[in-house]
Amino acid sequence: MGAQALESFQKLAMNRSLSVAELFTICAQFSSDGTGELAIPLYQTWLDFNAGDPLAAAVHFNLGVLLAEQGDLQRAAVAYSSAIRLRPDFLLPHLNMGSVSERIGAIGDAVRHWLTVVSVHANVTGESVSHKLMALKHIGRVLEKTSLEPSAEDALRQAIEIRPDPDAIQHWISLRQTQCEWPVLSGIASVPRKTLFSGMSPHCLIFHTDDPMLHLARGSAYYKRKVGQPSASLHTLLRNRSHDKSRRIRIGYFSSYLREHAHGYLTADMYRLHDRGKFEIFAYSCSPDVGDRIQTRIKDGVDHWVDVNDMTDEQAARRILDDQIDVLIDFNGYTGAARLNVIAMRPAPIIVNWLGYPGSMGTPYHNYVIADDFIIPPGSEKYYSEKVLRLPCYQPNDRQRLVSARQWTRADAGLPERGTVFCSFNGTKKIAPAMWRRYMSILDQVPGSILWLFGSQEATEQRLRDLAKKHGIAPERLVFASGLVNAEHLARYPLGDLFLDAAPCGGHTTASDALWMGVPVLTAAGRGFAARVCGSLVKAAGIGELVCDSLDQYVRLAVELGNDPTRLAALRRKLADQRETCELFDTAKLMSHLDKALLEMWEDYRQGRLPQPDLSNMDIYDDIGSSLDQDDLELMTVPDYEELYLARLREMDAYAPIRNDCRLWRGNGDGVQKSGNRHASRRKR
Question: Which end of the chain is more exposed for a tag (fewer CB within 10 A), N or C?
Answer without folding.
Answer: C
